[in-house]
Amino acid sequence: MFWIRQKNTRRCGIARQSNRDRININRGIRAEEVRVIGADGEQIGVMPIRNALEKAAEHSLDLVEVSPNAKPPVCKIMDYGRYKYELTKKLQEARKKQKTSQIKEIKVRPKTDTHDLETKVKHIAKFIGNNDKVKVTLVFRGREITLAKQARLVLEKVAQMTEEFAQIEQHAKFEGRTMTMILSPK
After folding, report:
1. Are residues 12 and 89 in the same domain?
2. Average pLDDT over residues 117-126
3. Which residue has the higher pLDDT, 36 or 5?
4. What is the C-alpha to C-alpha distance for residues 155 and 178, in angstroms, rounded to an integer?
5. 0.70 surpassed by pTM
6. Cα angle at 60 between 59 and 65, to 5 degrees?
7. What angle do CA 173, 177, 178 make, to 5 degrees?
8. Where would I find the Translation initiation factor 3 C-terminal domain in this sequence (predicted)?
9. Are residues 9 and 71 in the same domain?
10. What is the mean pLDDT of residues 116-120?
11. Which residues span the domain enclosing 113?
């Protein structure tokens, strides 16, 4: 019976908040005594929870548990709604500043000629310019598998042509009927 109920709550989209992420406010704080920090940032001191709640009510603000693991827990008098808003803004800024790089792929063949390689290198330069990694894949078809030496030379030529703006992150290695090499920005 309990299992079915739990399954139904998941299906309805009800998510349980983990204890680590939960922030206790006002009557949700379970400690008997707390260390209180005022709205202006000055430390008021250790006092019973009832007195701390009264102090917060005097200022028309909330009592928010900032550090629940401390002895006694640290609570701050603040506007909880504004606090949550500022937290979400900080998370958004952190995500915005996060670097995202993708792996772009360029395919060549063992018999790819010099001019075609130059065109591929221009594409690689554009991808590297966007701070993306480039996976150069050399594909063998049919009996071309016997041209392994020539294939290595093609990949070495690509590495030489891109050495001024890219570095080899992973040297050429065989994987079935393909040979791959990964280039990253310098």
Report:
1. yes
2. 93
3. 36
4. 12
5. no
6. 85
7. 40
8. 102-186
9. yes
10. 92
11. 103-185
What residues contact 127, with CB distance under 8 A and at least 6 apart? 104, 134
Q: State the helix-helix crossing angle for 114-129 and 148-161, rounded to 10 degrees.
A: 50
Q: Which two tokens stand for residue 87?
A: 């937290």
Amino acid at 31: A
Residue type, 15: A
Which residue, chain included where needed, has tokens 């349980």? Answer: 16
Nearest residue to 176 (alpha-carbon basis) of 150, 149, 138: 138
In this structure, which amino acid lies at residue 162?
T
Residues 64 and 17 in one domain: yes
Q: Which two tokens stand for residue 70?
A: 């401390």
Cα 24 to Cα 4: distance, rounded to the nearest angstrom? 30
Q: Are 114 and 161 in contact (CB under 8 A)?
A: no
Q: Which residues make Cβ contacts (< 8 Å) with residue 57, sequence separation at least 6?
A: none
